[in-house]
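Here is the promised in-class demo. Please do not try to memorize the tokens; focus on the logic of going from shape to residues.
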């Protein structure tokens, strides 16, 4: 029983007393300590007064401060939590704070950010004084840098309430028992003639002037320093002079100061003050005001101090979202500020909001979520993504709004690393297949291909090997040029995932179809990609042991893109991973820009360009490498194939028939034109199983029937049919070449043999071709008799 009375009563205090906080030495009757709330560990500050070592007067002041602070509740006044008194010590627990003087010394922000922050702090102290003087009818009597504290949110709080008196008691002159605080006394204290001019706020306004000077210059040591205005902002200059004026009656009321400085151009009129005041009053704002405010908030956050953003603005945003009608507009600033939180805080504060938002059917909310996905996806657990978030996102693939569909596609980039096997390899690819082939928006089809190339590393090896080539070749047949280019770039960027047999049998034939694409950008990408794949095959041909290393990533579950970036396809990796295609309109560029004019002389046969090399040499004979060809093409002809290469010894009999039937697109009537350069689309190509047009090479345009003979050897060459060159001698020509099996007699008229074409039309077309062939054959035989003997003509040589 005696132990109960002899134990330390301070143990009943709900807070643990921590280390001493320096800064209040000889400036207060209190000492400031860090503290924690027992049970929760919440950080607090504890003011400690040692009763045994203090005088009676100091003890009365300390006790009076506790009573006064307990009754004062204002956002800009120090928040009281608890107090405890024993015969040895007096404790006063408040929110966690630090002295303003120490805070300003450690302040790391500079420039405009610091200006905004200090303006907000001075505003808060002015507001607190207005509350005391006008609403509470009290005088503080101790306003200076030592009576102001800063909490974790960066808010300035007015403390030091030891000398607060009733404002009506103007005859009672406050006597401060701390000698170092006497320099803050107003001049009228020692001048009886001016004491009649004292107002309820005059002494506090003098203190506010001293505080403003100290904020910009450091602690005040003598009153004469108040005359130095060098560091006081020009906006505050006139007001500061009024505050430290000798006449008490000329000092303004704090409420008037706020009104003046909140006007346009005033010191308190800035983005930070406006933002924080709006958040304090957000409960009384209507929905339109909230949406307008949140929509404009994000760009300003970079100019606000981090501690203000994290502890003041972000909690207000979360509260506005949870309990208000802020809507989706709050998402952008909330996610931007979420980066300031540590992982535990993020899981506690932001993740529940995210999960709740994804359930929303509002399109605006869904759109903003998808746009901001990259900011919060890294903080979400895989189970949360797969079970709660992805099922909601997947609805966006089938949304009727193109913007939602496109943003959903792009979001897969960020989701892929966290998706499980079924969601990624089954669900996502099922939606991608439909969007890439059936979506009416060219931009969405393009971005689906880009996205598939980006997530290739996350796909299961078996699925990847099965899907990628088919998907990218499909993209290369798209009527939308950026979609075709995306397919080519994606093939190059993912080259490490393909077996060399697939490269030679599927990828290269598909790429060759685009070497005559009407879009220059597509052709450039195609030639670079072909060159790289051929170089890869050539290396393996020279050293078969390299095959294993080149196919190492094909069956690897987690291959790295760094290996691909270091190879020839590095340019494609950069192109694919740089940016998505920006959708603009639904207009699809025509795949047939040459359909309305005759192809009289292919430019690729006029000079040995990279295009001509890749087309002619790959059509006629095998080649080792495009790099080798380009290196020696300067002054040489494209090919040195002579007469013997096209001789009668070769069996061309089957090709003659095939040459008439293999064209994949064009018109069936005489004098019509065909699309010679465009890659075949899914609906415009009819497969013919004669062994030649399976690769869908395209065809040259048909000559007009009225033209009696070809004007140059190059006109008789068709990359579609891979046929020998036919020379047509003009009246004064000196170069000629022998016809091979009368192959040149044909008009190369392509037939579009669709499934619905009747046998009657086919028979008519065949008869017309036979008639024209016979006529041409007779003309050639007549001319052949008068022809002079000449050497073989070089491929690509110009007529004389």
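The designed amino acids, position by position:
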């Amino acid at each position: 029983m005696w132990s109960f009375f002899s134990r330390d009563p301070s143990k009943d205090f709900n807070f643990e007393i921590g280390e001493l906080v320096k800064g209040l030495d000889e400036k207060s009757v209190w000492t400031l300590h860090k503290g924690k709330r027992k049970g929760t560990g919440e950080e607090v500050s504890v003011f400690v007064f040692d009763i045994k070592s203090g005088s009676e007067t100091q003890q009365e002041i300390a006790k009076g401060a506790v009573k006064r602070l307990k009754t004062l509740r204002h956002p800009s006044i120090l928040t009281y939590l608890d107090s405890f008194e024993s015969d040895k010590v007096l404790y006063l627990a408040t929110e966690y704070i630090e002295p303003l003087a120490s805070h300003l010394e450690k302040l790391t922000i500079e420039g405009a950010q610091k200006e905004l922050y200090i303006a907000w702090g001075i505003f808060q102290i002015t507001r607190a004084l207005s509350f005391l003087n006008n609403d509470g009818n009290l005088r503080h009597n101790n306003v200076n840098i030592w009576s102001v504290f800063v909490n974790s949110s960066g808010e300035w709080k007015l403390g030091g309430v030891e000398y607060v008196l009733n404002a009506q008691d103007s005859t009672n002159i406050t006597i401060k028992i701390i000698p170092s605080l006497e320099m803050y006394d107003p001049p009228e204290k020692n001048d009886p003639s001016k004491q009649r001019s004292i107002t309820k706020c005059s002494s506090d306004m003098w203190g506010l002037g001293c505080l403003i000077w100290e904020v910009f210059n450091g602690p005040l040591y003598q009153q004469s320093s108040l005359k130095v205005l060098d560091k006081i902002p020009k906006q505050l200059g006139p007001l500061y002079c009024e505050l430290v004026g000798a006449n008490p009656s000329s000092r303004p009321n704090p409420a008037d100061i706020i009104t003046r400085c909140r006007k346009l151009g005033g010191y308190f009129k800035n983005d930070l003050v406006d933002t924080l005041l709006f958040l304090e009053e957000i409960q009384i704002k209507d929905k339109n005001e909230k949406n307008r405010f949140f929509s404009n908030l994000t760009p300003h956050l970079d100019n606000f101090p981090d501690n203000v953003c994290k502890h003041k603005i972000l909690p207000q945003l979360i509260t506005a979202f949870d309990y208000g009608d802020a809507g989706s507009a709050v998402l952008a600033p909330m996610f931007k500020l979420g980066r300031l939180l540590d992982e535990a805080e993020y899981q506690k504060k932001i993740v529940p909001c995210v999960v709740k938002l994804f359930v929303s059917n509002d399109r605006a909310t869904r759109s903003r979520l998808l746009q901001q996905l990259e900011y919060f996806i890294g903080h979400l657990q895989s189970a949360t993504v797969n079970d709660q978030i992805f099922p909601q996102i997947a609805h966006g693939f089938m949304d009727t709004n193109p913007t939602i569909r496109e943003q959903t596609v792009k979001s897969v980039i960020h989701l892929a690393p966290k998706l499980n096997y079924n969601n990624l390899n089954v669900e996502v690819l099922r939606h991608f297949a439909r969007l890439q082939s059936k979506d009416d928006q060219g931009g969405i089809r393009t971005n689906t291909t880009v996205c598939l190339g980006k997530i290739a590393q996350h796909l299961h090896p078996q699925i990847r090997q099965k899907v990628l080539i088919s998907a990218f070749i499909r993209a290369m047949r798209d009527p939308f040029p950026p979609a075709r280019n995306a397919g080519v770039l994606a093939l190059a960027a993912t080259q490490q995932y393909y077996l060399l047999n697939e490269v030679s049998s599927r990828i290269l034939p598909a790429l060759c179809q685009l070497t005559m694409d009407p879009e220059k950008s597509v052709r450039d990408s195609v030639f670079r990609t072909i060159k790289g794949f051929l170089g890869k095959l050539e290396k393996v041909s020279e050293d078969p042991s390299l095959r294993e290393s080149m196919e190492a990533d094909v069956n690897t579950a987690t291959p790295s893109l760094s290996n691909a970036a270091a190879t020839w396809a590095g340019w494609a990796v950069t192109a694919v991973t740089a940016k998505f295609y920006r959708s603009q309109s639904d207009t699809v560029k025509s795949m047939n820009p040459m359909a309305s004019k005759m192809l009289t002389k292919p430019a690729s046969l006029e000079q040995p360009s990279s295009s001509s090399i890749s087309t002619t040499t790959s059509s006629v004979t095998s080649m080792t490498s495009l790099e080798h060809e380009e290196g020696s093409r300067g002054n040489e002809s494209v090919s040195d194939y002579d007469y013997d290469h096209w001789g009668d010894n070769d069996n061309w009999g089957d090709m003659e028939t095939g040459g008439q039937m293999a064209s994949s697109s064009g018109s069936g009537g005489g004098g019509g034109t065909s699309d010679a350069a465009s890659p075949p689309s899914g609906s415009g190509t009819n497969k013919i199983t004669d062994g030649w047009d399976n690769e869908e090479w395209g065809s040259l345009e048909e000559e007009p029937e009225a033209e009696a003979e070809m004007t140059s050897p190059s006109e008789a060459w068709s990359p579609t049919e891979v046929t020998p060159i036919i020379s047509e001698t003009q009246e004064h020509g000196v170069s000629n070449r022998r016809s091979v099996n009368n192959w040149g007699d044909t008009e190369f008229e392509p037939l579009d043999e669709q499934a619905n074409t009747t046998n009657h039309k086919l028979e008519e077309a065949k008869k017309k071709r036979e008639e024209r062939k016979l006529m041409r054959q007779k003309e050639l035989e007549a001319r052949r008799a008068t022809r002079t003997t000449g050497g073989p003509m070089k491929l690509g040589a110009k007529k004389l």
